[in-house]
Amino acid sequence: MIVALLGKSGAGKTTVAKAMEKYIKDSFVIDGDEIREEFQNFKLDEDGRRKNMETAFSRARRLSDLGFTVFVAMQAPLRDVREKYLDDNDIQIIMENYGDNPKDDLGYNKNYNPDYQDVNNVCVLQDFTVESFYNEFFPKVLVPARFQGFHKGHKVVLSEAARLSPNITVALRVDGEDIIDLEKNMMLLRSKGYNVIKSPDIDEDWTSFADQYDVYVQGNPVVIKKFENSKCKLLFIPRYGDVSGTGIRDDLSNSSHQIDDDVKELVKDALETK
C-alpha cells in the first residue's frame, strides 16, 4: 500500500512519514527532498516536478508490490502522475500546519494546488499521534483463520490483506483440544507484526464482532456465511488450488498410509532388534 502525504512545504509530511515508519512493520519512506538531492533535480517547473514525482511514485509502487507500506512525503502537485501509480487501496492525505486553526487552511491549500481537489483526507500536524493516524486512515482488516496446517494458501490470504492495510487482525479459531497449536500460531503471527485474537466460536453470532472491522479476507463459504448480517466488506480470496487446512490435518493424522509397506517392515524389524 502507498500513503501519499501531500501539502505545502513545512506542513509536516516528512515528520509524519518517519514517525509512522517506526510504528509500522515493513514500512518505508520516500521523501521528496531526498529524491531531488539524489538526482540533482531542483527544478520547480512542471517538467522538473514531473520527473521527481515519476521517480518517487514508480519506486513506491515497486516497493508496495513487494509487500511494503510506503509513505511518499512530497508536494506531488500533478494529479495525473498520482493517478498513474496509485490504486483504490492507496491513501492520499493533505498535511496541514498553518495558522491558529490549521483545518481552516484546507481551502487555501486546495486553492494553492487545484490538483489536490480530489483529496479529502486531512491530517493536522498539531493533533498528530501515530496511534490516531493509524486508526483513522488505515482500514481495519480482519483475517479469520485456523492456520492448523499453515500452507501457501494462508500466505496468499495474508499477502492480499497487507495490500489493503497494515492494520490487520488475525482471529484464530481452534477446534477441540488443540490449544497448544493455537498458542503456537498466536506467538508466530505476533512475531510477524500481526494483531492476533481468539475468534468467537463457530456456532456463535459473529455480527457484533465483525462490525468492528472494515474488511475481512476470506475464501471459506462457511466462514463467509458468519458475516452475512454484518457491515464488514468481503475481500474474497479463492482457495489455493485443491489445498485446504482440513485436508492437511486429515493427512497428518492418517499419515501412515503415505509410508510404503517395505519401509514399515524395516522400521519394525529395527525396533524389534534394538
Account of the 3D structure:
The chain is an alpha/beta fold. It folds into two domains: about 1-135, Rossmann fold (3-Layer(aba) Sandwich), CATH 3.40.50.300; about 140-245, HUPs (Rossmann fold, 3-Layer(aba) Sandwich). Helix content is about 45%, strand content about 15%. It contains twelve helices and ten strands. The protein has a five-stranded parallel β-sheet with strand order 2-3-1-4-5, with helices on both faces. Strands 8-7-6-9-10 form a five-stranded parallel β-sheet. Strand 7, helix 8 (about 180-190) and strand 8 (about 195-200) form a beta-alpha-beta unit. The longest helix has 20 residues, at about 45-65. The radius of gyration is 24 Å and the shape is elongated. The termini are far apart. The relative contact order is 0.11. The mean pLDDT is about 80.
Short description:
With 274 residues, the chain is of the alpha/beta class. It is built from 12 helices and 10 strands. It has 2 domains: 136 residues, 3-Layer(aba) Sandwich (Rossmann fold); 103 residues, Rossmann fold.
Which features does this protein show?
single chain, Rossmann fold, 5-stranded parallel beta sheet, alpha/beta, 274 residues
